[in-house]
């Protein structure tokens, strides 16, 4: 039932909250089917993974002219208008029992209260660092002010105001879906640069075609799996533009921007430069080292923008007919480097956490200086390896595999086999050994380092002598609801564990100090509420 909070109780996120909201939404849409309304799930229960009071917050967003009629309909259905409770343009309604607690509000699209609900919800959905800070604060205040809801609310106000400020001036990129289609087609058809510079009209239904087929580069084996269509959104959820790109063109380590369009009504407001900042982070998360694009020689304004955005390297010039065989249009291929740290630099710039890491770092740096084959397992004395700790966004669970060789639950990782990109190897091994499709580096820097002695053993029938692994470990974030699989050649099982429970399952005793050091650092990050996603 619609509910007045008397006791502040915070529960970890419950999947049932989304189901409760959908039940409430269906009820309201049926009641108000004669009106143009939108039903929005807001508040903490609308943010996946966020601990909350078990109360669904719901906004009925209406046209101002319909308020009195909608109020009348709601009252006939057993709802009671409790007034604005001191918040302009937001009217609280109590209502009948639906089997769960809920807060119901009637508001308007242009109401500041409604916009603030969206700013807070959307920001917390996109920004893990502030979500963790907000959750920690909520739990602290709930413990301190369990029976004082006003003090609880007041205690959150400063952090919420800070989020409002950041959200109002920020954008984010999100993989587009078919719900975005009409708006994206509208933006595409308004794009006149091709017509101005090359005499080509925007293509109708181009976005729909890209959803189905992708906008693939002219290379053999190009597949839609490497094509990205990203909506550019503000924190009210409005679509400002879009970016299309391809991971792995013209070289496998390049993210190619095939098209980027900002709504023509929103140009010269800095959205383009903000988009490039986010796209640079997106490129890094996908372990691409460079970004590239082609720009028309006639498009002086565009060339200036890309140069100001860091695309200062002209790789080559080429011509395209752009659908007009009578003309060839000159293009510049531009490039920007975004990830260029070598394995020597990665180890050298690492800040040791303790004496063990300090001495291991010195050994690693000395060895790689004098052994040019240190990335190859053919160096039988020692070689560089990359490992991964995969944790959930709340930093409470970790994904381990049960390895045949070690007969124990352990981290995942492998040999570099000549690849100088330590992070790329760790991410590749993590995905191959677990089946995860979406994982993101917590940071592009090494998380921990260790020199690990590997005792002699048989692998696939071949004898492997005693040797050292010069190991760099990286921290990755992955949602635990993803499908995982077991590679029977390598593992008996792959499983998520509570962070505090892992040591009840690790039988390889020599690895316990390695894991404990890393887990203590993870808990420290979690306690501080610091995330770098």
Key attributes of the depicted protein:
globular; 26% strand; 533 residues; 33% helix; eight-stranded mixed β-sheet; alpha+beta; seven-stranded mixed β-sheet
Walkthrough of the structure:
The protein has 533 residues and is of the alpha+beta class. It has helices at 16-31, 67-76, 112-126, 128-144, 149-168, 181-189, 193-198, 206-213, 271-285, 300-308, 343-349, 355-370, 422-434, 512-528, and strands at residues 38-42, 56-62, 80-81, 90-94, 102-108, 171-175, 227-234, 239-247, 254-262, 290-296, 313-320, 329-337, 382-391, 397-403, 408-410, 412-415, 440-441, 448-454, 457-459, 462-464, 467-477, 491-498. It starts with 15 loop residues before the first helix and ends in a 5-residue tail after the last helix.
List the helices and strands and how they pair.
Elements: H1 16-31, E1 38-42, E2 56-62, H2 67-76, E3 80-81, E4 90-94, E5 102-108, H3 112-126, H4 128-144, H5 149-168, E6 171-175, H6 181-189, H7 193-198, H8 206-213, E7 227-234, E8 239-247, E9 254-262, H9 271-285, E10 290-296, H10 300-308, E11 313-320, E12 329-337, H11 343-349, H12 355-370, E13 382-391, E14 397-403, E15 408-410, E16 412-415, H13 422-434, E17 440-441, E18 448-454, E19 457-459, E20 462-464, E21 467-477, E22 491-498, H14 512-528
Parallel strand pairs: 2-5, 9-10, 13-21
Antiparallel strand pairs: 1-2, 3-4, 4-5, 6-7, 7-8, 8-9, 10-12, 11-12, 13-14, 13-16, 14-15, 14-22, 17-21, 18-21, 19-20
Concise synopsis of the structure shown:
This protein is of the alpha+beta class. It is built from 14 helices and 22 strands. The model has no long low-confidence stretch (mean pLDDT 89).
